[in-house]
Amino acid sequence: METLKPHYNINIEMDTEKVVVLLLGDKTIGYICLNYPLIFIESQYALEVKNIRHTFHDIEYIMVDMLSNPYLSVDPDFYNAYFDFMENLNAFSAEDFYFYNVN
């Protein structure tokens, strides 16, 4: 997180939340999982974030056109092994992932 703070605003309650909200000004541009090397990021900001975090090689970036578009899917067995319950694993958005996994 420290590498991103000079460039972006970060919103998190460290004691209770498991997902960081990454902001550019007041616009949410991504979500960063704290327990896993996983970043949901809007495509137009992905390259800059990757360049800032270039020394962190194990991060998986999930690039989306918009955080609210429900076109992501995941294998239920994999998802349920690591993350909190989410209703529709065949069509969800990055915002849905954040909502179901923030706490």
How would you summarize the topology of this molecule?
Layout: E1 9-11, E2 19-24, E3 27-33, E4 38-42, H1 43-52, E5 60-64, H2 76-82, H3 94-101
Parallel strand pairs: 4-5
Antiparallel strand pairs: 1-2, 2-3, 3-4
Can you tag this structure with a few keywords?
about 100 residues, alpha+beta, five-stranded mixed beta sheet, 3 helices, 5 strands, globular
Uncertain ranges: none
Distance between the termini: 18 Å
Shape, per Cα inertia axes: globular
Secondary-structure element series: EEEEHEHH
- Give the rounded overall mean pLDDT: 91
Order of strands across the widest beta sheet? 1-2-3-4-5
* Tally of contiguous helical segments: 3
Structural class call reads: alpha+beta
Characterization of the model:
By secondary structure, this protein is of the alpha+beta class. It has one domain (8-102). It contains three helices and five strands. It has helices spanning 43-52, 76-82, 94-101, and strands at 9-11, 19-24, 27-33, 38-42, 60-64. Strand 3 and strand 4 (38-42) form a beta hairpin. The chain is globular. It starts with 8 loop residues before the first strand and ends with a helix. The model has no long low-confidence stretch (mean pLDDT 91).
Summed up, what is this model?
This protein is 24% helix and 25% strand. The chain has 103 residues and is of the alpha+beta class. The mean pLDDT is 91.
